[in-house]
Amino acid sequence: MNAALRPLGILLAAGLLAAAPAALSTFAVTLMNYIGIGALVAVGLVLLTGIGGLTSFGQAAFVGVAAYSTAWATTAGGVSPWLGLPFALLTTGLAALLIGAVTLRLGGHFLPLSTIAWGISIFYLFGNFEALGSHTGLSGIPPVSIGSIALIDSRAVYWLIWAAVGAGALFGANLLDSRQGRAVRALRGGPVLMASVGIDPFRTRLVIFLIAALYAGLAGWLYAHMSRFVSPAPFEIKPSIEYLLMALVGGASHIVGALVGAGLVTLLKNWLQDVLPHVTSNAAQYEQIAFAVILIVIMHHARGGLVPMLTRFLPRVRRAAPVGTDPLPRRTLPERGETVLVVDQAVRRFGGLVAVDKVSFELKAGEILGLIGPNGAGKSTMFNLLTGALRASSGRIAFLGQDITRMPQRRIAALGVARTFQHVKLRPAMTLVENVMLGAHLRTGAGWLSGGLRLDRSEEARARADAYAQLARVGLADKAEDLAGNLPLGQQRILEVARALAADPVMIVLDEPAAGLRRKEKEALAALLSDLRREGLAILVVEHDMDFVMGLVDRLVVMVFGARIAEGEPAAIRRNPDVQAAYLGGVA
Amino acid sequence: MSAMLEIADLHVGYGKVEAVRGVSLSLDKGRIVTVIGPNGAGKTTLLGAAMGLLASRGVLRFEGADLHELGVEDRVERGFCLVPERRELFGEMTVGDNLILGAYSRRKDAAFVKSALDGVFDRFPRLAERRRQRADTLSGGERQMLAIGRALMAGPRLLLLDEPSLGLAPLIVRDILRIVATLRDTGVSILLVEQNARAALETADYGYVLETGEIALHGAASDLLNDPRVMATYLGGATE
Amino acid sequence: MTPDIALILTVDGLANGAIYLLAGLGLVLIFSVTRVVFVPFGDIAAFTALTLAAFQMQRVPGTIGLVAVLAAVASLMELGAAVRRRSADGLAQRLFGYGLLPLIPCGLAWLIAARDVPEIVRIPVALGLALPMGPLLDRIAFRPIADASVLVLLIVAIALHFAIAGLGLLFFGPEGFRTTALVDGIFELPGGLVITGQLILMMASAVLLAVLFFLFFERSLIGKALRATAVNRTGARLVGIRPERTGVTAYLIASALAGISGILIGPSTTIYYDSGFLIGLKAFVGAIIGGLVSYPVTALGALFVGVMESFASFFSSAMKEVVVFSLLIPVLLWRSLALAHGGDEEHEELDG
């Protein structure tokens, strides 16, 4: 498949959907309407669960909040359904923000468990509010009208629903291909990388949770005015699981998967409802069992869903390299020789263990400083203190004259500190260029809405051009559109350097960049770092490969048991008896 | 006589990267053999593969049996025990419980468990003092003693030690390695993996130097101790 | 509200809390050993109550069919795995464990179902039917994905609940049942407070079982091996503890706890085929208070949930579920604050 064919495919799908009502029976059109409503919720879940890795078992409750809001506003309040929409989205959004603010800080399994709890709570609330008609629900909800035409007939509502699905799917797809969308896609690998490039993981989770709830809210509004009656049953936990099933069956990481999944699940449900009553008097139960078993089998054998199983056989869409676009503006670096980093008596304790013990050193612009020491010497802890991943127990760290000792990681990143990791932290399912663009997060500013509405294109183009320039610089330009997970480990390390450079840093901090590299690659890396030094970057390297370090750095700091035991030029360090003893284990 | 442990042309990889490439070594019964090398050379990976925690390709035989066909727990039952780099103690449980669980593979032999426990307490009197204390309240050196003691509770025939000196002060390293040397006298063979080359070579009979996943040098421990090429693998600079 | 009413509500709440306590212990046990949030726990409890109710009506309980179906599926999976491995090593033992052993309580249940046997026979047989359910569900649903992330395991656990609740309806039908009280008698305490023997039995059993549970984990080698697996899985393997086997033990113990909870709760509320879900979820609230790791805090949390529920139903019986589940919000908030203060170390939550 070729990138140019993509809009063609979308147009074809849209055309087929537009022509569908003419060819389908009324019953089939009604079915399509249900598929559309399910698809909207599922698109939200793909963004939240499939991409962002946050599982929700309570999505039907959001559909319910919106459906009840608009039902109440249009019946008791007597307002137009068009006013019911913003009201429904407002209540759903507020509910999501409230729930999200409380639960989204929780790791792993606590979040999905809590979604069950609030999902059930909200369901019971519906059934117990007099104003919401208790268990009988609310009826007499007006249909949506466009001008003087009331959309009562299922063929008429079809247009409204599928227009919403189309807009929702496009918004979601656009969002994934934008600055904030990349942040969502990066969520799954954990918060460490995100904080190092200046993304707030909690905020990102909260917004994507809100967006998923708003998709459910839109679906709820459509549902209320299509069926013109709401009662608690469709918003309990079982439909929530059906929505999750839709997202997972189709392929949790693809917007198209949501549409496919919604279609399959709705059709399967309908088929079971047709067939089972002929076979058994307990049709609803077999349906429930069938759905649950399908979900288990998917989890056992096809965790990625159906769409990825099929697209695996298609070539991936590759984009062309940008031509003639200006890269992003760059900051002015400090003068060469100016001191950028001052570490003064830094101490870090873990319980009784002193991992970093009164270490002091300085780093100048245009200098490469090596930090070496045997395993367990406290080098990684020192690194984490510099980048803000850990806080010093005492002592002071200043960067460009500012005290950063207690500064959060994101602000330190914004000041111009970029890093790589000892255990490579990339997003294997994203392309090289997308991984590098993550590094430029703080140099760009496009928000969620402008990403979803494609108002961010000129900035995106510049960020892409910039990322391509960084990839070219480290020698990976020819693989820019490959997936990062397909690179050998050595090149993954180099890719991390490109990502660090994309932040346009003043100082880069490299954690064992040469590990796993072949000789040629090491030479290329050393040449690159020398170039960067000439441009005036301050570079700090932790490395075990002594041949690499000794030939490259200007100065070395040697740490043993948390303390600095030596500092000086490489040749002097090599002759230093204390250092030799520390490495080979000398006399005590 | 064939070797107790035989490793030949062993390859271990994480994903597409091979951390150990074609390593061969052998260990005869009653010997202490050490594998030294700088950080990142693949030492821990090598032991992980030998223990069955990591998948590997190549020859891996213990007392004539093909280790590839045995799970981690089966290897333990045959007296093939690892003291891992990360200790992997049961932190929330007492020192005594940690030791008793060490003998889990021998749990049906109450007399053995009792004598093994006495043996460990004789060897590490500190652990006897602290037997009711939680393992996560121990100091670094005590934890290492507990990790070794726990492995001894299984009645090992071959003990794999992964960086027993890691994070310990030099004096404690001496103590621990002295105890390791005495284990040989009780019939336990030892494969000692260390970054601290001098201490390891002083303890061992034979040594292998691992560098970026391959064996760079090997020979009698006393020869390697004075070989400048060993220093070169650590601090670089020397010519081939 | 008068102090008398408050006292009655508290006692009632503690009795229900006793059930949540047993369930909470089982949930924490399974989670800490296997990382599975075992949602179907409540279903096993409910099915055990329904089994006993069937015996009391001298009917054949649907549990027999359910256990037989699970045993058949597990046996087929073992056969399939052996074919894929091209090796029959240990197959006979596994088929015996998963295929034949579970049929023994089925046979016993079949024998006594239509007869007028004393309760003292019925209760152990009903419990016997509960026992194989945990290990069988483990074999069928969780063993094939033992290395998956907690999240994937949780999704499977929830789906599993819906699958077996569906089976429950097929085998038990939609009617609810209440078993006859295990003990009669009403006790009047000074001050006019009246307590039924049933309430005392519930609380006493929970206390006794909690003590046994504690002793088992503190004193027995198997209990210690279970804790060791929970604390450090790699460490446990390195001393020769097989995680698969400790998993089976954990599921057996949890099944027993679930069965006993079901027997105890049967006389005090009407149990339906799907009642287990809410029992399990309320126990979860208790377990989450304990952070899914601490047994004592879980026990306190479960009792707290029981008392809250009891008071909430006094004010508005319809809203009691809302109150209990809304309770999670402050609990989670407190947990997340605790997390924010202690969350120093780097953690990556990769899942594939």
TrEMBL record, chain A:
Record-level GO cellular component terms: plasma membrane
Primary residence: membrane
SUPFAM superfamilies according to UniProt: P-loop containing nucleoside triphosphate hydrolases
TM region positions: 34-54, 85-104, 116-136, 156-176, 206-224, 244-268, 289-310
Keywords: ATP-binding, Cell membrane, Membrane, Nucleotide-binding, Transmembrane, Transmembrane helix, Transport
Protein name: ABC transporter domain-containing protein
Topology with respect to the bilayer: Multi-pass membrane protein
Residue intervals of the ABC transporter domain: 341-586
Gene Ontology MF term list: ATP binding; ATP hydrolysis activity; branched-chain amino acid transmembrane transporter activity
Compartments where located: Cell membrane
From TrEMBL, chain B:
Record-level GO BP terms: L-amino acid transport
Gene3D superfamilies registered for this protein in UniProt: P-loop containing nucleotide triphosphate hydrolases (3.40.50.300)
Keyword Cytoplasm in record: no
InterPro entries per record: AAA+_ATPase, ABC_transporter-like_ATP-bd, ABC_transporter-like_CS, BCAA_Transport_ATP-bd_LivF, P-loop_NTPase
Domain of life: Bacteria
Ranges in a coiled coil: none
Domain ABC transporter, chain residue ranges per copy: 5-237
Any Pfam family matching the protein: ABC_tran
Keyword Hydrolase: yes
SMART domains: AAA
UniProt keyword list: Amino-acid transport, ATP-binding, Hydrolase, Nucleotide-binding, Transport
SUPFAM superfamilies tied to this protein: P-loop containing nucleoside triphosphate hydrolases
Molecular-function GO terms, alphabetical: ATP binding; ATP hydrolysis activity; branched-chain amino acid transmembrane transporter activity
Recorded family membership: Belongs to the ABC transporter superfamily.
UniProt-recorded name of the protein: Metal-dependent hydrolase
Protein's organism: Prosthecodimorpha hirschii
Automatic annotation (TrEMBL), chain C:
One Pfam family in the UniProt entry: BPD_transp_2
CDD domains: TM_PBP1_LivH_like
InterPro entries referenced in this protein's UniProt entry, alphabetically: ABC_transp_permease (IPR001851), BCAA_transport_permease (IPR052157)
GO cellular component terms listed in the entry, alphabetical order: plasma membrane
UniProt-annotated location(s): Cell membrane
Any one GO molecular-function label of the UniProt entry: transmembrane transporter activity
Keywords, comma-separated and alphabetical: Amino-acid transport, Cell membrane, Membrane, Transmembrane, Transmembrane helix, Transport
Membrane topology term: Multi-pass membrane protein
Record field: transmembrane: 6-30, 37-57, 63-83, 95-114, 120-138, 150-173, 193-217, 250-273, 279-306, 318-337
Biological process per Gene Ontology, one example term: amino acid transport
Protein family membership: Belongs to the binding-protein-dependent transport system permease family. LivHM subfamily.
Protein name: ABC transporter permease
Organism: Prosthecodimorpha hirschii
Top-level taxonomy: Bacteria, Pseudomonadati, Pseudomonadota, Alphaproteobacteria, Hyphomicrobiales
